[in-house]
Amino acid sequence: EIVLTQSPATLSLSPGERATLSCRASQSVSTYLAWFQQKSGQAPRLLIYGASNRATGIPARFSGSGSGTDFTLTISSLEPEDSAIYYCQQRSNWPRVTFGQGTRLEIK
Amino acid sequence: EVQVLESGGALIQPGGSLRLSCAASGFTLNNYAMNWIRQAPGKGLEWVSTLGSSGSDTYYGDSVKGRFTISRDSSRTTLYLQMNSLRAEDTAVYYCVTDARGYPDQWGQGTLVTVSS
To answer: Considering only CB atoms, which chain A residues are within 8 Å of B47?
Structure first.
């Protein structure tokens, strides 16, 4: 099983600041990595797929980068509505996809 | 618009059985592979099962293999998850999710399964 480790566990930033979330895979997943946003009480929403491609309707302030084992989700200028838990997910050995444990982003 | 809507969640005793349903709208199930993904209370996301777009290829996570069965109806508008021999650790919100390019794409609102005596 491919294990994804996300850091930090919690991030607390102010509106307008830049957020950088990390995801590390236990083995190479090439660019088969996605990012999801889950707000309280809601289902997850796909933000980024293929490591760097924004899903339909996702604002340009969200961007993804990386390949192999190290990946980053960047939110360039935080909005209050970006408060959520963010998960990375690999599809390298589809359909046995796995998720990271999540990073909680708090907006002060 | 592609949408999915889960139903069938309930409080069930350990060892019991339950069938979850997922109604598809805006598409037919032979257009997509389909997933069940679950989330235990306060925990992360866990892949449970996938049905290939052909309807004949089925895949299961190790924690549910031999106990859960994924299927769809002949009209290709409803996805099912038959869950047998339920355990306390199966307690979770179960999401029905379309699969796009191997990534979970459109998620339903989820249905809660609670396994407890």
So the answer is: 95-99
Partner-chain contact A87 B103, CB within 8 Å: no
User: What are the residue ranges in chain B where pLDDT is below 70?
Assistant: none
pLDDT digits (tens, 9 = 90+) for B57-75: 999 999 999 999 999 987 8
Which 3 state secondary structure label does DSSP give A82?
helix
Which amino acid, one-letter code, is at A47?
Answer: L
Searching chain A, which residue's CA lies closest to the CA of residue B52? Answer: A95
A97 vs B15: CA distance, rounded Å: 27
The verdict on a CB contact (< 8 Å) between A44 and B45 is yes
Q: Tell me the residue type at A17.
A: E
Query: Could you give the CA distance from residue A4 to residue A23 in angstroms, rounded to a whole number?
Result: 6
User: pLDDT by residue (tens digit) across A30-42?
Assistant: 999 999 999 999 9
CB A66 within 8 A of CB A72: yes
Q: Quick one: closest CA in B to A40, which residue?
A: B42
Cα–Cα distance measured from residue B69 to residue A58, given in angstroms and rounded to the nearest whole number: 34
Residue among B45, B47, B99 minimizing CB distance to A96: B47
- Residue B30 vs residues A40, B24, B71: alpha-carbon distances, Å: 32, 11, 12
Residue at token pair 């889960």: B6
Show the tokens assigned to B37.
């993904």
Chain A residues with CB-CB distance to B59 below 8 A? 95-96
- Of the candidates B59, B61, B95, the beta carbon closest to that of A43 is on B95
